[in-house]
Amino acid sequence: MKQISNSAPTIFDVARLAGVSRGTVDRVLYDRGRVSQKTKDKVRKVISELGYSPNQNASSLANRKEYRFACLIPQFSKDDYWEEIYNGFIEGTESVRLASVCLDMYLYDQTDVDSFNSACSQILAGEPAGVIMNAVFKDAVTDFAHMLGARGIPYAFIDNKVDDLDYLLYYGVNPYKSGELGAFLLTNRQDVREIALIRLIRDSRHKADPNAARRHGFIDYIEENLPDCVIHTVFIQPDDPAGIMATLECFFSQHPDVRHIAMTNSRIWLLDDFLEKHPDSRRTVVGFDDLKKNLESLRRRNVEFLVTRHISRQSYQAISEFAECVIKGIRPARRNNYVHMDILHRRNLDDY
After folding, report:
1. What is the SS3 assignment for 127?
2. What is the Cα–Cα distance from 92 to 163, expressed in whole angstroms?
3. Segment 29-47 mean pLDDT
């Protein structure tokens, strides 16, 4: 068997040549978890032939080989959430000094699962050293993760994740807890009887649901603390301003007593036209993420609170640590890296 490069082998080289996941190699190395004897023998044979040792990091770095990583995130427009994530990835890649690191960006249409699957095929054809992605389409992401694992290609998640997969690391907020925090901010000052939870129509086949965990945290908090509160779900089409206005006017004409509104995605600003046309001093609105348009909504008092974090920082840290772990062939100090959540109000906005 030939060594795949002239640099010191890593745990990911072992996984790829043995045809198993990185996690399986780890379990064989440290004799933990369930692994069949046949798989153990195969992994140990590759380890012996490669001369792999978990402590050969210094030798690996000395060779300064090029590592190509693939980044799979949604397409974006100027000032979108994913533009911030993109910028963080670029800056984070430039910060890696352990070896020559290149990041290939693959952007997909988050309203179209076929677009996602096409990007996945391109990534697999390029045989990257690792993949970092988000989880808009849960089923498709799960299938892709299994294909990566079968090839011994490590992967990480940014912003959201699928919990039961063998990802190397995750950077982002704890989505469930961020939903709970948003619900608390919306309801903590008074007895709330009804809430309008505004959701986006993302794709015609209803495959995309990246904010599911945050929404579940929001709903669970309300059900636990305000069991008599009714949550009305209202769907809007994000690319249809006139349709948004008509949908909201219809809903609130039928439910005039609903004065508590939330969106668990990053586009609370989509409600601005309606909120300004129908002002109500008793209304409370909570959104997420400090995008430029959301901050303008907060400043104009259309929104009361934003639950956020420094968006680009999470992708900067994610690619920096992910690349280092892959290059060194080590596990991260912490698998789930939940970033700090911030609460923005117009009174602290200027200092953020």
Report:
1. coil
2. 24
3. 82
Taking the CB of residue 84, how many other CB atoms lie within 10 A of it?
22
Cβ atoms 317, 92 nearer than 8 A: yes
**Residue 206 is encoded by which pair of tokens?**
């209803």
> Count of alpha carbons within 13 Å of 221, Cβ hemisphere only?
21
Whether residue 130 contacts residue 124, with contact meaning beta carbons closer than 8 Å, is answered with no
- Residue 107: CB atoms within 10 A of its CB come to 15
Query: For residue range 317-334, what is the model confidence (pLDDT) as tens digits?
Result: 999 999 989 988 888 989
Give the whole-angstrom CA distance, residue 277 versus residue 243: 15
Q: Which tops the pLDDT comparison, 313 or 23? A: 313
Strand order in the sheet with 66-74: 100-108, 66-74, 130-133, 155-158, 170-172, 336-338
Number of residues in the chain: 352
The dihedrals phi and psi of 233, each to the nearest 5 degrees, come to -95, 125
Residues near 292 by beta carbon (within 8 Å), at least 6 away in sequence: 79
Q: What is the dihedral of CA 128, 129, 135, 138, to 10 degrees?
A: 70
Question: Does the pTM exceed 0.85?
Answer: no
E strands present in 45-136: 66-74, 100-108, 130-133
